[in-house]
Amino acid sequence: MSTNISVIIGSTDFSSAPDETGSHVRVSIGSHTNVESHVGTNFIEHCHAEYGLTFAPTVIDLVHLSLAVFAADKIALRSSAYDSWSRDFKIYFPVADTALWTSCKEIIEESLSFLTGDHWQIRFRERESSTNHETARLPHSKVCLLSGGLDSFIGAADAISENRQNKVICISKYGNGGDESNPQDRVTSCLFRHFGGESFRWIKAYAQPFFPNHAMEDSTRSRSFLFLSHGTALASVLDNGNELIYPENGLISLNVPLTPSRRGSLSTRTTHPHFISLFKQMLQALEINVNIRNPYQLKTKGEMINESAEVDFIKNNARTSCSCSHPSAARFSSHSPGEHCGYCLPCLIRRAALKAAGIENCERYIVDVTERAPESYTKSGKDYRAVRMSLIREHDSTASPLLRVLGSGPLPQENIEDYASVFQRGIAELNAFLERTAQ
Hints:
It is built from 15 helices and ten strands. The chain is an alpha/beta fold. It has three domains: 125 residues, no CATH class; 152 residues, 3-Layer(aba) Sandwich (Rossmann fold); 111 residues, no CATH class. It has a ten-stranded mixed beta sheet with strand order 5-4-1-2-3-8-7-6-9-10, sandwiched between helices.
């Protein structure tokens, strides 16, 4: 059964979804007095009020579409799907140029399906489009996504170091609560102290769905579509360039399923090269001139640290970042806010990278797997043991690394051996750390 979502934008928009089978939800972007379900957002308004920016209509539509997709991802529970994972969505969405958006409809649907593991159909309808006024432009050369994780910390530090004189804008996405926002605040404060208050600009984009009396899905596979779309908007109004950097190590980016059971909920594709390729194709079809790049696609996380332009700074301040996939775990224990769970795959990759960089005991973990393994009957124990055993099998496997990386999705043929190589090196980093962990 499909989830039909009619997206409402503006106080004069009262459109509803056609009468089709499945559940129907009306969701407004921003505030709308007649629609309970909505997505709180401040990005476009903040950019206009603070910097005088007026984005092109197609760019505004892209930001709004990413918010609508994010809302759909949260409002439909995966547990209600026929296979407890893959859902069916139909989104009825208003745009300024229906012909332009319809021309890349299939690319958008393919990219979202690859990203989230769901089935997407986007139906475009015409919206009112206000006349664009002369807009200010930002005197910068590039935008860098800053999630608050270690990879984005390194990416921002490298970009700022290599582009002095306030040429970099960092953008972060946050919602309610401090699980996302607190690490971003810590990392950014650290960057400002090191580089100086005028060294770069930081913009925070708020995005939070509100569904009264409705349970929300925990998984958020669409978050990178949201994040990249907001970054694209900023990169589209730069005066001295058009580059958007998304920093991610090659092992996580490829995210090869370590076992067949990890192809769904435990294997994300948020920055997989194939998704990024489809996103670029969409921007080209929409005539949005932004160059998206991951400088670390062929580096492991440990290599990112050791080869950073600010290596000593990163090593001394890595603890300010948060790489955990369970950032709220500390709130449900006696541990301090922001501590890493210690047993999820991102935590293990992080610890392996820190070890490879010669950084020991720089932070606390809720479960320190070098001292004790989590109890096997707990969720943390099941996650940790599944990861540990699959990595050991991967290390001992005779299967071709090339076939393994192709199992996660299509890759560019011109440097496919390089993808296999970074996968091998990343697994080697992990196994070097796992040798020290509790059995």
